[in-house]
Amino acid sequence: MHEDFPVPEAADIVVIGGSAAGLTAATVARRYHPEKSIAIIRRDSPVPIPCGIPYIFGTIGSVERDLIPDALLDFEGIDLVEEEVARLDRENRQVVLADGTTIGYDKLILATGSTPLIPPIPGADKQNVFVIRKNVDQISEFLTALRAAHDVVIVGGGFIGVEFADEIKKHSDKNVTVVEMLPHCLALSFDASFCAAAEKQLASAGVKVLTGEKVTEITGGEKVAGVRLASGTELKADVVLISAGVRPNVELAAQAGLKADPVAGIWVDRHMRTEDPHIFACGDCAAKVSFFTGKPCPVRLASVATMEARVVAANLYENRRENPGIIGVVSTVVGRVAFAAAGLTEEAARREGFAVVTGEAVTPNRHPKVMPGVTDTRVKLVFEKGSGVILGGQALGGESVGELINVVATCILNRMTCEQVALLQVGTHPLLTAAPTNYYLSVAAEAAAQKLHGERN
Amino acid sequence: MHEDFPVPEAADIVVIGGSAAGLTAATVARRYHPEKSIAIIRRDSPVPIPCGIPYIFGTIGSVERDLIPDALLDFEGIDLVEEEVARLDRENRQVVLADGTTIGYDKLILATGSTPLIPPIPGADKQNVFVIRKNVDQISEFLTALRAAHDVVIVGGGFIGVEFADEIKKHSDKNVTVVEMLPHCLALSFDASFCAAAEKQLASAGVKVLTGEKVTEITGGEKVAGVRLASGTELKADVVLISAGVRPNVELAAQAGLKADPVAGIWVDRHMRTEDPHIFACGDCAAKVSFFTGKPCPVRLASVATMEARVVAANLYENRRENPGIIGVVSTVVGRVAFAAAGLTEEAARREGFAVVTGEAVTPNRHPKVMPGVTDTRVKLVFEKGSGVILGGQALGGESVGELINVVATCILNRMTCEQVALLQVGTHPLLTAAPTNYYLSVAAEAAAQKLHGERN
């Protein structure tokens, strides 16, 4: 516990959890309610910046350089309580800490996060088999083992797996292998051709990528020695990292009788309120619905957590904001190429029952092509066929792809049609973007619009 | 005239002008009408890429490396006629060339562009006083004079003036001075603090910037020797570049009896059709209305030209697309900083009669801050006070600002409120963007939302 911060008896607004969701909920609530007392209760001290974790091996160098600064909370007049919460006492509106101390609340925000999923693989409990927990000591322990290792196997080719593989290979000559069950890495966010481009980047960096492969056993004695695959392949391994998704931390809510599903998360309404009008939930622990279908949505992202936290912070005393459902917007860098996606892939859209039309563009990100820093940007947009409304987009190319996908996400949020996306008004510049005649999104949307026009005539 | 392309007797679709608007109109029309014959008539051969022109001095190296490739037209089956048009014969639906030859049309697209404005300054006709015309020979002549010059004076601190100054100073030790009448450079696109940041970049690169200064005379004999300012200052000058805006080329339209204003441009309806149902206009030659007010809009940009060309290309045989009015989205690089703006500045919004509320954010463009390539991004958003609807935005920072402003533009196009912008769903990544807790636009919009909330309570 911080000696500077004695545990308060009560606070108007109590937040459980100090990562992206909890921190944003507390600091935004502070702005709307300067007169209220606000406290954050968190288990870990201090908290790593989650998105930075894959880059601690070389780019950042240590977990100590990847921490959320606590000074912010002090500055905002937010009490910080570093304790484990034992249970919620809803009747008396108080949080009960592990040592029996209670903290009263008027409004409670659950931002308890998620826990890495460990698939039931025999041997997953061996020494040097890790998952990424947002905890300084555990990450440091993993880093120490990683630095000493020669053969590294990463189980799961999602963003965390791919980013760790890329980072480790960029900063060492270790033997790195990624094992992915699905036909491609990053397959939940990208269609096959974009996944293949990411895999090509990994391969040229020297990462071995095994897709459509299932791990059946983690071998060795007390300590891991290898990984056995369903195909019969055996991989040597000094360290295994399992990155196979997360499960929401719903225990506190469930034990307090709130509706919560161990896979979907703590149930919340559109205003992010649980069944108890005094309790809200946001971030990884909260159940989510898809922007596109209203169905449960498994996406867990820091950027989603902060959006939800902004909804909660504004709604504590009146319903002012609505969560429109989750689009799912992601970006990353693999090798020297940025990859980004928003909304549904073509494959996911079809699976959800949409008839789709797509449009693509491949355009240099400078004009004329002789400008320094030029590289091709590839864009694919997915539209619903009947209405022409945009459902998703994918892009790969230079650094600006990270913001380009946010243009796509904004088009999705506004349910723009391919006709409207083709007519986007954008700024272009020789040193910053494609030529105006060739702007990625206009060209891709125009291609889709032309297909729809052709079919109607 | 291209020997490969004999002048056709007629084409279904005839375009006059081969720059951003004409080229886009022709190539998009080709997609919608594969069966139609299409011809472009243009005066110059070949056509420089307009946005690249300020970078020919050093970054590109010569105007020959900054040309729109004609191979595209060939590939698309578009006839190219390199001739001066003398007049339009609307009664017989034909274009009359300078030599008397006629080309018949069913649909005619005027994309005749604009001509640089030369203010009535005594001495503006001296040798080595230049404006930027989109013509290879004239640009080459300017470049030759520029290379030989020591003292360069640029009259007009808009984008062209600032970009030329920055480029010349980056690639030479010439004495470069920008003279701007308004209190700041770039003042039509940015509020004062952003203009000041751009001027600071220019100053640290060694460019002299004189604002609030009017040129009263260009001195010298046959050839320019200096520039005299209203304040009495005299500047030495071997070369003067005048970049003081453009006037639309309306002569052909006006002579043919179409409604056209020498300052505003050729009148068009929302579907970009002139008073003659067979004749359309797009790009710099066409009159524009503001997205925000419906009033005439002086913005002339290649990105606006291509948007308008897409409207024209789809509407030739039926009204399929509407021009929603011009937002005005721009980006540039000054020194090592990218600057971008969309919509109305705070000052312009107030001048137009809006009550406004603004929100700002200053955020590193990486997270954590130790990531390579980190630089602060500054954002200012302008909202209408009553509705909370976004009217404009400005940003400065790293390369991604070029696309960040397109997120802002998409928010504007969809008339999003500050509440909605605060809840944008975006992708974030340590190597590409701000932290999700700190995303530029969410933070700036939240600040505005909080101001509005505070005033209402």
TrEMBL record, chains A, B:
Residues 12-308 form the FAD/NAD(P)-binding domain. Gene3D superfamilies: 3.30.390.30, FAD/NAD(P)-binding domain. It comes from the Bacteria. The keyword Ligase does not apply. Residues 331-435 form the Pyridine nucleotide-disulphide oxidoreductase dimerisation domain. InterPro entries: FAD-bd_OxRdtase, FAD/NAD-bd_sf, FAD/NAD-binding_dom, FAD/NAD-linked_Rdtase_dimer_sf, Pyr_nucl-diS_OxRdtase_dimer. Keywords: FAD, Flavoprotein, Oxidoreductase, Pyruvate, Redox-active center. Its cofactor is FAD. GO terms for molecular function: oxidoreductase activity. Coiled coil: none annotated. Belongs to the class-III pyridine nucleotide-disulfide oxidoreductase family. PANTHER family: NAD(P)H SULFUR OXIDOREDUCTASE (COA-DEPENDENT), PYRIDINE NUCLEOTIDE-DISULFIDE OXIDOREDUCTASE DOMAIN-CONTAINING. This is Pyruvate/2-oxoglutarate dehydrogenase complex dihydrolipoamide dehydrogenase (E3) component. The lineage of its organism: Bacteria, Bacillati, Bacillota, Clostridia, Thermoanaerobacterales.
